[in-house]
Amino acid sequence: MAGILVYALHYEGAFNKNSLGAVAEAARLASELGTEAHAIVVGEGVSDDLAGQLGGYGAAKVFKVEGPEGLSQPVVDAMAKVMTDNGHDYALFGGGLLGFEIGAGLAARIGAGVTMEVTSVSVDGGKLVAERPILGDSSISESRYKGKGIIIGRLNAFEVPASNGGTAAVETVDVEFSPWSTKAKMVQRGEQRGADVDIEGADVLIAGGRGLGKPEGFDQLQDLAGAFGGNSAVAATRAVVDAGWYPYAAQIGQTGKTVAPKLYLAAGISGAIQHKVGMQSSENIVAINKDSNAPIFEFSDLGIVGDLNKIVPKLIEAVKAKKGS
Amino acid sequence: MKICVLVKEVPDAAVTKRIDPSTGRLDRGGEKNLNPYDTHAIEAAMQLKEGGEVQVDEIIAVTMGPGSAVRALHKAVSLGADRSVHLSDDALAGSDVAATGYALAQTLKRESPDLVLLGQQSDDGECYTIGAVVADHLQMPSLTQVIKMDVSDGGLRCERQAEYGYDTVQVELPAVISVGDAINEPRYPSLKAIMGAKKKPLDALGTGDVEIDASRVGTDGSQVECGNFKAPPAKSAGLIIEDEDTNETVEKIVAWLDERKLI
Ligand SMILES: Cc1cc2nc3c(=O)[nH]c(=O)nc-3n(C[C@H](O)[C@H](O)[C@H](O)COP(=O)(O)OP(=O)(O)OC[C@H]3O[C@@H](n4cnc5c(N)ncnc54)[C@H](O)[C@@H]3O)c2cc1C
C-alpha cells in the first residue's frame, strides 16, 4: 500500500489550517493512487473526538500518539514508526516551522527524498510528483522520488475545504522516543509578547519592515498613520519583530496576524511568502521598496521603487495637506 | 566545549541566479560569498566563547563544496573561527538535502562537537532543513530558527517564534541549533584577521576520509530527482512608479489614493 501520512499540527484544541489543507490534498492524491490518506496527531491528552475530526477532511484513519507538542523530534520518531509499520510511501506537511523540521528529520531517518515549499502535487505513473518554485519564484522545478517521498507544502498551497462532518477511526500508537529526542524540552509554548496593539480592525495599516533600517523608523510610520487619521494603525514584519523593533502583537503573517484592511501600505518590506499570507486579502496594497525586484511588487496594486527615507516624510506632509483641505 | 559552525558558499545575493540548462542545476558561476545567515551562526559561537558562561576551546568552520568554497572558510575564520574543515569530492556533486546532511554529519562525527551551529537558511536553495537532517544522523537534539540562545542549566535555553507565538525550549548538549538573523549583529572582520585567515589550519577532506558511503551521496545517492524546469504563470502586476522626482512621486501616490477614496 502506497499510503500517504499527514502530520496534523494542533494548538489548544484546534488544528492548524495548513494541516487541514494537507489532509484534504492527501485524500485527493490517495484516491488517484488507489490508496488511503491517514493523519497523525501527537500531543498530551488529545481526545479521540478531536483526532477523529480529521476524518471530515478526508483522513481514513488517524494515528494518535501521546507525546510532547510543538517539538519536532518526538514527531519524527512517531512518524517513522507509523510509516514503517503501515507501509506508507509518502508523508505530506502543510508548511510552517514544524513541517520543515519534522519533514527534514524524517527524511534522514527513513532515507526518503524531501521537497519543501511545494505549491502543487500531482500523480504520474502511480507516483507523486511535486512542484516547487525556486530562485526567488522565477522558475518552477519538478521533484520525483526514487523511493519514499516527503512533501512539505508552501503556506496556503493546499485549499482547506469545509469539513464534511465525517469522523475517522482513531488508533492509539505507543512510541518509544529516541534518547536524543527527549533532550529538548518545551519550557513555554506559544507565549504572546508585547503591548496589545489592535491592528485587526484598522481600515488603514501602515506596515514597516527591515528596510526601515532602525527601530526609530517606526516613529515615522506612526506619523504617517496619524496623518491618515481615523481608524489607522502601524504593523510590522517578523524580521523587525524578531529584532525587537516593534511588538509581536502587531506582526502580520504566518506566525502573526491575518488582516484585510482597505489600505495596506508596506514600507521597506520584501514581501516574503510568510508575510504575504497575512495581508494578501487587503483591498489595496501599496509598496515602497528600493529594490525593483522585490517580490512585494508582484502583488501590490501600486508599487513605488525608491528610498522610503526620501518618500515617507514627504508623503506624511502631503497626506496631512490633503486631509486638511 | 568544541563548537562546529556549518557554513556555505552561496552566489552573491546581488547577482541574478539562473539554472544551467545543460545540467539542470543551479549555475554556481559568478560572484560568491559566505551565506549571510552563517555569519550570525559564527557570531553566536563567538558570543558563547566571549560570554564566559562556558569554556569554549575551539570554533571550527565546516563546509562541503567545490574548491572555491575555501573562500567561505577564510571568511569564517576571519570572523573568529579557529580553524576550518573542507569536505570536497566529485562524488558529492548533485547531492540533495538529505544526502548533503548525511555527508556533513559524517564530517562532523570526526570532530565530536559539543555544539553544531548553522544559519537557518541559505541564500541559494534549501531552507530551514539541513539542521534537522544533520541532527538526526548525529542523534542529537535540534532546534531551528532560534532568535535567542543563553547558557542555562548546563545546556542552552533557546527562543524562537513559532506558529502560535514564542516557544522557549531547553536543549541539552550536544545539540544542533540553527539560528535566525535576529539573534545578533555579526562583527566586521579586522584587517589583521582577514590577512591572517589563510594561515589558519584547514583540513581538506574527501569522502574516503570521513567514512561516507558513496552510494548515499551525489546524484545517484539522492532520493529526489529535480528537473523539468518551467516558468511560473504570469502575474498581473500593478502600477509601478520609479521615484525620480520625489515631489512628483508623492503627488502621484496621493492622487492614486484619492481616486480610490482611501484618503
Ligand atoms: C516558519 C516561518 C514563519 C514566518 N512567519 C512570518 C510572519 O508571520 N510574518 C513575516 O513578516 N515574516 C515571517 N517569516 C519571515 C519571512 O520569511 C521574511 O524573512 C520576513 O517577512 C522579511 O521581513 P522584511 O520584509 O521586513 O525584511 P527583508 O526581507 O530583509 O526586506 C527588507 C526590504 O526592505 C527594502 N529596503 C531596504 N532599505 C530600503 C529603503 N531605504 N527604502 C525602501 N526599501 C528599502 C529591501 O529592498 C528589502 O526588500 C517567517 C519565516 C518562517 C521560516
UniProtKB/TrEMBL annotation, chain A:
EC number of this enzyme: 1.3.1.108
InterPro entries linked: DHS-like_NAD/FAD-binding_dom, ETF_a/b_N, ETF_a/FixB, ETF_asu_C, ETF_asu_C_CS, Rossmann-like_a/b/a_fold
BP GO terms, sorted: fatty acid beta-oxidation using acyl-CoA dehydrogenase
Any single Pfam family the record assigns to this protein: ETF_alpha
Cofactor: FAD
Entry keyword Glycosyltransferase: no
Subunit structure: Heterodimer of an alpha and a beta subunit.
Family listed: Belongs to the ETF alpha-subunit/FixB family.
Protein name per the record: Caffeyl-CoA reductase-Etf complex subunit CarE
Organism (species): Capillimicrobium parvum
The encoding gene: carE
Automatic annotation (TrEMBL), chain B:
Assembly and interaction partners: Heterodimer of an alpha and a beta subunit.
SMART domains on file: ETF
Gene3D superfamilies, per the entry: HUPs
Cross-referenced Pfam families: ETF
Single GO molecular function: electron transfer activity
Span of domain Electron transfer flavoprotein alpha/beta-subunit N-terminal: 23-214
Origin: domain of life: Bacteria
Descriptive protein name: Electron transfer flavoprotein small subunit
Role played: The electron transfer flavoprotein serves as a specific electron acceptor for other dehydrogenases. It transfers the electrons to the main respiratory chain via ETF-ubiquinone oxidoreductase (ETF dehydrogenase).
